[in-house]
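Why does this matter for the project? Reviewers at the last site visit asked to see concrete outputs rather than summary tables. In response, this paragraph embeds two records directly. Each consists of the residue sequence and, immediately after it, the corresponding structure tokens. Nothing has been edited or filtered.
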Amino acid sequence: MSDVFEPGSEHEQVVFAHDPGTGLKAIIAIHSTALGPALGGTRFHPYASTADALRDVLNLSRGMSYKAALAGLDLGGGKAVIIGDPATTKSEALLRAYGRHVQSLGGRYYTACDVGTFSVDMDDIARECSFVTGRTVAHGGAGDSSVLTSYGVFQGMRAAATVAWGGPSLEGRVVGVAGVGKVGSHLVRHLVEDGASVVVTDVSEPAVERVRSDFPTVRVVASEAALVAAQLDVYAPCAMGDALTDTVVEALSARIVCGAANNQLAHPGVEKSLEERGILYAPDYCVNAGGLIQVADELEGRSLRSSRDEDPEGRSLRSSRSERLEGFSFERAHQRTTGIFDTTLRVLELAASDGVPPAIAADRLAERRMREVGRLRGMWLPR
């Protein structure tokens, strides 16, 4: 067993969840609660093996710790994966069984949407679990977090353009978007509206057709390899992780890499290869934090709403309908997500001043906050 858990030795807790009746096989990884309870989405994916799923959840949960820290949130990092094809395996019973496992952690981990899961799934999970965010608007939630995820990536791209070309506009630039699902399609909209020339690819033909229908000027290429080989100014990986391999970096003509995918660097050292080739990399967990900011605002609003509903002696208080609905504020979350522009600039400026790749600069900023604030709090425990 020690060999299995060695890759996650820095994690606080790793839970394997199994429910034979529904076919649930899941892994929940809590990387750090130094800044607060761990928050991260649940990914539903047909992993080839449990080992592959474990590797993914460990990497993703670690990234969430850094993402929350760099975004200035009082949250830790966690993630969960459900092993299976969501198109054939997902069911209300399975999601509710999964919710019971999340509930058993007592609030050390909050779940939300990710690849293969949606706000309606969070509503099912919430039937058995109090620690869910990213719920549908009809159930008092923030709804689809991909909206602000894409907006944050766009802000990070504008910051990178400012460093690379002296101004934030993408007008006239050729941007290649790999993956036009929930986040990538919204990003395409921002780019087209800003005047960029957009090239896309996706393994899902329906996803490509939706983008083609909505944005007739967008050009489609057959594969990610073809996109990487195209003449681009910006490359935006918006699908699964490990997008930036040695082969991809060698083939890229883009001046900037900035996308929504998590864990884009396939292995340590890729960040140095990007720098050596003169490619400016906007670290993934820096620019794709908009969705986290959105669901965190939902949690914050829920906490504020609960505190208004009781007086200091614990007695229930009546409040107006407008007060009860004040919890989540899209405008507030949108404004906070706009701050990704400044955060990305700060990372790129630190990278230049310290003479290190941006990925290392981002890590330093995140680790500094986890260290300085975390030592005051220690491991987060439910109250």
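We now turn to the second protein, recorded in exactly the same manner.
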Amino acid sequence: MASRRHVFISHHHADDKAVTSLTKMLSRKGYEIRNSSIRAKPANRERLKKGLVADSTIKRLLRMKMSWASTAIVVIGKNTANRPWVGLS
């Protein structure tokens, strides 16, 4: 039987493929991952790039998603340190 985990995977959207690979690998190891991280659809990515989403909205969504999860994983890519939401508290 799979071990269910409610996980928030913090990542830059450029690393979405790495997140998918990670969840598949964990699944093969017997974990049922319910990932609550925010994965923006193409239309929303454009809105984010153009600065059309208020910081307060992003912060509210991140807090809500993180509070639901029992585990947090951070995927660190080559541009992670430059992301505005790294270190959000």
